[in-house]
Amino acid sequence: MRPNKRDELVRKALEVFYRDGFHATGMDKLVVETGVSKTSMYKHFRTKEELILAALRLRDENFRNWFIRRIEDLSETPAGQLIASFDVLKEWFEEDKYRGCMFIKAGAEYQEKDHPIHVQAAEHKRLLLDYMTDLCRKAGVRDPESLGCQLLLLQEGAIVTAVLLKKCDPAQDAKEAAQVLLNHALT
Amino acid sequence: MRPNKRDELVRKALEVFYRDGFHATGMDKLVVETGVSKTSMYKHFRTKEELILAALRLRDENFRNWFIRRIEDLSETPAGQLIASFDVLKEWFEEDKYRGCMFIKAGAEYQEKDHPIHVQAAEHKRLLLDYMTDLCRKAGVRDPESLGCQLLLLQEGAIVTAVLLKKCDPAQDAKEAAQVLLNHALT
DNA sequence: GATAAGATGTACAGATCGGTACATGTTTTC
DNA sequence: GAAAACATGTACCGATCTGTACATCTTATC
User: Fold this and answer.
1) At what angle do helices A144-164 and A116-139 cross, to 10 degrees?
2) How is A22-73 classified by DSSP, letter by letter?
3) Stated pTM of the model
4) Which residues of A93-114 are buried (b: 16+ CB within 10 A; e: fewer)?
5) Which of A24, A37, A45, A155 is the one with CA 20 to 30 A from A94?
């Protein structure tokens, strides 16, 4: 039961869950795709739910690391980073493997508010909200909590709209809206 | 095979699909909940997919009718209606049966872009976008297409955030952001 | 009231679901 | 090299999945 083997299983499961969905992905499919036996799979993860939670943890870590790093690559000032976040979203949307936000989908497939998967999805969004609010505070805007939430709404809206309506360039529209909101909160 | 019987089945299926999700809802459960026999169910709908599509059609009709009617109840001017739309969203979010947007969830569970269910979910969003854009045009804003899309992004963002982050009152934040964007597009 | 036509219920097929029992193979320790 | 500890593969469990075959029941028509 090497620990890196487990990580490899989580990485592959994450890929398949993201691509095909949670209910639509059976453990048998994961066993085939990872090449491991079913017994080994259930040695590492006692239930499918435990595997999903591990995949979500990895996704949260990967995504937020990438998201924040790319934002800081593009701008050095808090105000600039608030705007740059929408350019980073655009990069994400243009990946051909883009399938929307895994946490929105997790929260949608496991809707009970106290379900562990739902709770973990909510936690991811709360961390993103905290990040945006923090940037707003550093940028010295009037009401950081409000603007942080408003910019998060634009991001979330762009994420789901990028799945369903390719034609309307949601990242660009969201960026322009964010700029207007930011200017309004700075003056 | 009375036609109103079919409508009744669609209505009940809509309720269960919205509550529990698509993959998580089996035909057996629907047969039990509707009281009809399995044979009759498959006489009305040849496949589960056909039933889902019928439920989505009904949902689209019900939702857009309700949404637009409530907006027109709250305001008579196009500019006022653009803002009022967020008050209507707030009413929706406060229903205890609120479980997010059925079309976002449908698009998430059936991700292939040419899948009939995905296509129908996208069509719903396109109709909402057209509605918002049309109101923008009537309100005489500078760039109706852009503002329409931006306000849609705020709505979509509020819808998904209302599922995952109850505490941050997304409808209110979205409404304030919409007001700023509208003022900016009018002057 | 006999007969045809359509609606319904039961029972099941074949596949897949999450999960496990158990036998075999591999490594470690003495 | 024997024995204990661990990892793995096969084969299966009962439940549930979508969908169907077929017998029964109701209703309309003559």
Assistant:
1) 120
2) STT--HHHHHHHH---HHHHHHH-SSHHHHHHHHHHHHHHHHHHHHHHHHHH
3) 0.93
4) beeeeeebbbbbbbbbbbbeee
5) A24
Q: Of B136, B129, B158, nearest to A170 (Cα)?
A: B129
Q: What does the DSSP 8-state code read for residue A113?
A: T
Confidence band of A35 (pLDDT split at 50, 70, 90): confident
Contact B139, B78 (CB under 8 A): yes
Q: What is the dihedral of CA B160, B165, B168, B173, to 10 degrees?
A: -10
Q: Closest by alpha carbon to A181, among A87, A75, A82, A73?
A: A82
Tokens of A171: 């990242």
Q: Which 133-172 residues of chain B touch chain A by CB within 8 A?
A: 146, 149-150, 152-158, 160-161, 163-165, 168, 170
- CB contacts of B129 in chain A (<8 Å) are 165, 168
Cα A63 from Cα B66, distance rounded (Å): 37
- In the DSSP assignment, the letter for residue A115 is S
The residues near A122 (Cβ < 8 Å, ≥ 6 apart) are: A107, B164, B165
Strand stretches in chain B, DSSP E: none
| pLDDT level of residue A166 (50, 70, 90 thresholds) | confident
Q: Which residues 82-101 of chain B have a CB within 8 Å of chain A?
A: 99-100
> What average pLDDT is seen over chain B?
94
Report the C-alpha gap between B177 and B169 in whole angstroms. Answer: 13
